[in-house]
Design a protein that fits this description.
This protein is mainly alpha-helical. It contains five helices and two strands; from the N terminus they run H-H-H-H-E-E-H. It has a single domain, classed as Up-down Bundle (Four Helix Bundle (Hemerythrin (Met), subunit A)). The model has no long low-confidence stretch (mean pLDDT 95).
Length: 158
């Protein structure tokens, strides 16, 4: 596979919409009263999932770009604290998620970046590995968002 084709495929994987839902589709139209709702099985709320997605994606992006980056403590650092988000918190989290996703796409699009070269600060890892990790993690948890919304009767609105 040539380099441009690989980059295009990775962008498509990050954006979703093929074999899995995009982030925009998963969260679009979610009723505000369902942000903190659980689907009756004790699973995560849409807010918890959004914040987890945002935090994990930011962590991986910063890990790739900043050699001195320190990841949050696992697992508590990857999930929001208690309490409902304000409208501003919700919008801010969505915007930060989208901003970091765009930064990842820019990273993939950069023709001067060797996606398969070891990271200087972590020779066992590559940009390719980290991008695939983000895409996989996002797809998994966005699927959970869809399932919560479906169980709440709020999916058809999305």
């Amino acid at each position: 596979m040539d380099d441009n084709r690989l980059r295009d495929e990775l962008i498509g994987l990050l954006e979703g919409g093929h074999a899995h839902v995009s982030a925009q589709r998963a969260f679009s139209g979610l009723l505000p009263e369902h942000r903190m709702a659980r689907a009756g099985d004790g699973g995560h709320t849409p807010w918890e999932l959004l914040e987890h997605l945002r935090i994990a994606q930011e962590d991986i992006l910063r890990y790739v770009l900043e050699p001195s980056w320190r990841s949050p403590e696992w697992p508590e650092g990857y999930w929001p604290g208690p309490g409902a988000p304000s409208d501003e918190d919700w919008r801010g989290s969505l915007l930060a998620f989208e901003r970091d996703l765009e930064s990842l796409r820019d990273l993939v699009r950069d023709p001067g970046r060797d996606l398969t070269a070891p990271l200087p600060h972590s020779p066992k890892h590559t940009v390719l590995r980290e991008v695939l990790l983000v895409a996989d993690h996002n797809a998994y948890h966005l699927g959970q968002v869809v399932e919560v919304r479906r169980r709440l009767g709020d999916w058809e609105r999305g």
